[in-house]
């Protein structure tokens, strides 16, 4: 192997050591389980290495890898997602006697709702609420317009609201307030 | 209202992703070996009739066009060079007396106008294409200087259309997520300027004619297989517009997973793309009618059928944990893909794999009746690799 190639590989290994944990966390939020997240990150890293010779000297390596991560998830995993059924619908709205365990159950319900979202909607939520990206940055990463980012986010939140009611009632807070009063 | 849900989402995401994670050192090595394997497959795919294996995500899960074959009994008698030259019309790139040339099926040696060993030699209509690291030469079948493009970047790759009447030199653009395609006819001297277009990395060039370009992309991810009007070019900037500007009548986009599903962009030759695409199943009469209409009456059905049939059928994605295991060297099937050179006949008659200097090469022969024969081949004296023929 040439010296240049070996040096490039070493740089790539350093990048992976520094950033793979962050990619894994985002991948987990996108896919919902760690094993699938690992596959997604592995694919992302492979694609990133394919472009390494061109991107290694730029300051956008991580942006490139993230773009690959999110778009690979949106495309490659579609066959699996097509077979998956949305997780169970949470029909029952929270009641007034919710304790800690029930709050946890509501959070789980919210997580299941997020897991059942279409890929792009879920990606928009993760980028917005986990990575704290702006809509313009999200648009760039996903290769869609900012208008589409807004509409996807709005649709996802509307679905969440419809499923869980208001955040306060979802956690039993308003009911507790009424009881306290 | 939404603000509260936004806070909940932030807390939930942070909590869920907060599990301590220890990076695995093997991931970088697995990515490097996987990427190198993909590069080999790209070379195989380029020889196998197109640029189809640029489906990166799928390639990582070890899509292997010869998997079924390699699983079979490998005990087969050797094949002689005479047999493959006579029975399969195989030609070889060879070095004899310090000169590089093509050893034809009739055992004639046609010198190539090169100083060093070329990367590949392709046979196309009325010419040989000689691919070198920084140059591509079109040479008449009988030999001679031919015409050489000297301004080719080292990371280019060469593709040939299914009719073998034109070829493309594909290069990466300054924007790392786009590829530029220069299309040249194989009767080169008559074409003063190459046709050029630039596509997003999300789109893979499959085939083309004088009037129609066929590409592939993920359509189902957006359409779910439903027919109707969509706005891929507008939303994803795939580059269909540049195909129109290059003068083509239509662009046909086949779905990666189901190549019978497609979207058709009715281009304005010389100007660009229409604002939307019409999507549906190729078997649908209305869709076929739209395809013909968008293509300005140019023959298109055969082109699309062929491109659809040539698309690799992708496997399901791996279940959790399989990928690392699959990218270990031991996962290579029978070592066929471990070799330095893996070449597949664009006409699907044979595949060969070997390391430079090997006295015998591994060979797989595909008969028209569907039977498959594995053997070892003793190549002709001085043979470096087979010529890949598109005619």
Describe it.
- The complex is a heterodimer of chains A (181) and B (391).
- Chain A has 2 domains: 1-84, RNA polymerase sigma factor, region 2, helix turn helix motif (Rna Polymerase Sigma Factor, Chain: A), CATH 1.10.1740; 92-181, Arc Repressor Mutant, subunit A (Orthogonal Bundle).
- Chain A has helices at residues 3-31, 34-50, 52-55, 61-75, 78-83, 100-115, 119-129, 135-142, 146-164, 167-170, 173-180.
- Chain A has 11 helices and no strands.
- Chain A is mainly alpha-helical and 181 residues long.
- Chain A is elongated, with a radius of gyration of 20 Å.
- Chain B starts with a helix and ends with a strand.
- With 391 residues, chain B is of the alpha+beta class.
- Chain B has 2 domains: 30-209 and 300-389, no CATH class; 210-236 and 248-299, no CATH class.
- Chains A and B meet through helix 1, helix 2, helix 3, helix 4 and helix 5 of A and helix 1, helix 2, helix 3 and helix 11 of B.
- Give the strand line-up of the largest sheet of chain B: 13-14-16-17-18-15
Overall 3D form of chain B: globular
Unreliable stretches of chain B, pLDDT < 50, 5 or more residues? 45-74, 314-333
**Sheet having the most strands of chain B:** 6 strands, mixed
The percent of residues in helical segments of chain A reads over 70%
Question: How many separate domains of chain B?
Answer: 2
What's the helix count of chain A?
A: 11
Class per helix and strand makeup of chain B = alpha+beta
| Range of strand content of chain A | under 5%
Number of domains of chain A: 2
Give the distance, in angstroms, between the N- and C-terminal Cα atoms of chain B: 66 Å
Radius of gyration of chain B: 23 Å
Order of helices and strands of chain A: HHHHHHHHHHH
Strand content of chain B: 25-35%
Mean pLDDT of chain B: 79
Number of strands of chain B: 24
Shape of chain A: elongated
Quaternary structure state of the chains depicted: heterodimer
Query: Helix fraction of chain B?
Result: 10-25%
- The CATH architecture term of the largest domain in chain A is Orthogonal Bundle
């Amino acid at each position: 192997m040439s010296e240049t190639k070996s040096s490039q590989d070493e740089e790539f290994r350093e990048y992976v050591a520094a950033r793979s944990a962050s990619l894994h966390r985002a991948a987990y939020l996108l896919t919902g389980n760690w094993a699938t997240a690992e596959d997604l990150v592995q694919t992302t890293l492979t694609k990133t290495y394919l472009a390494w010779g061109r991107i290694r000297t730029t300051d956008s390596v991580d942006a490139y890898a993230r773009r690959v991560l999110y778009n690979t998830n949106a495309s490659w995993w579609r066959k699996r997602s097509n077979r998956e059924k949305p997780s169970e619908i949470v029909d029952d709205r929270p009641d007034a006697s919710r304790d800690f365990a029930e709050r946890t159950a509501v959070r789980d319900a919210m997580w299941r709702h997020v897991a059942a979202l279409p890929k792009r909607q879920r990606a928009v939520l993760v980028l917005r609420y986990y990575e704290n990206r702006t809509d313009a940055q999200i648009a760039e990463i996903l290769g869609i317009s900012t208008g589409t980012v807004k509409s996807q986010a709005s649709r996802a939140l509307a679905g969440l609201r419809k499923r869980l009611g208001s955040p306060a009632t979802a956690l039993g807070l308003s009911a507790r307030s009424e009881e306290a009063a | 209202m939404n603000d509260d849900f936004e806070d909940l989402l932030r807390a939930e995401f942070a909590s869920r992703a907060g599990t301590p994670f220890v990076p695995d050192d093997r991931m970088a090595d697995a990515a490097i070996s996987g990427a190198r394997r993909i590069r080999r497959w790209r070379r195989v795919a380029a020889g196998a009739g197109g640029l189809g294996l640029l489906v990166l995500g799928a390639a990582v899960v070890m899509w292997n066009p010869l998997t079924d074959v390699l699983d079979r009994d490998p005990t087969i008698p050797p094949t002689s060079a005479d047999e493959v030259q006579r029975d399969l019309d195989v030609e070889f790139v060879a070095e004899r007396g310090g000169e590089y040339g093509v050893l034809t099926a009739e055992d004639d040696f046609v010198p190539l106008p090169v100083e060093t060993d070329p990367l590949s030699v392709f046979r196309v209509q009325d010419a040989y294409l000689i691919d070198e690291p920084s140059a591509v030469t079109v040479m008449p079948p009988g030999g001679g200087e031919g015409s050489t493009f000297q301004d080719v970047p080292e990371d280019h790759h060469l593709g040939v259309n299914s009719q073998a009447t034109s070829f493309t030199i594909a290069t990466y653009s300054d924007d790392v997520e786009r590829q530029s395609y220069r299309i040249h006819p194989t009767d080169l001297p008559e074409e003063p300027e190459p046709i050029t277009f630039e596509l997003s990395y999300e789109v893979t060039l499959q085939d083309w004619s004088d009037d129609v370009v066929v590409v592939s992309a993920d359509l189902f991810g957006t359409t779910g297989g439903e027919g109707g009007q969509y706005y891929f070019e507008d939303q994803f900037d795939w580059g269909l517009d540049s195909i129109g500007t290059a003068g083509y009548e239509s662009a046909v986009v086949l779905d990666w997973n189901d190549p019978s599903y497609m979207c058709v962009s009715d281009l304005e030759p010389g100007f660009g793309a229409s604002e939307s695409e019409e999507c549906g199943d190729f078997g649908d009469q209305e869709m076929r009618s739209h395809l013909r209409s968008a293509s300005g009456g140019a023959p298109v059905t055969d082109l699309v059928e062929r491109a659809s049939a040539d698309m690799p059928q992708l496997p399901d994605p791996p279940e959790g944990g399989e990928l690392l295991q699959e990218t270990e060297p031991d996962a290579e099937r029978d070592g066929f893909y471990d070799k330095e050179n893996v070449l597949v006949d664009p006409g699907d008659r044979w595949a060969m794999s070997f390391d430079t200097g090997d006295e015998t090469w591994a060979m797989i022969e595909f008969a028209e009746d569907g039977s498959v024969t594995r053997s070892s081949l003793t190549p002709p004296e001085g043979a470096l690799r087979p010529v890949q023929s598109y005619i």
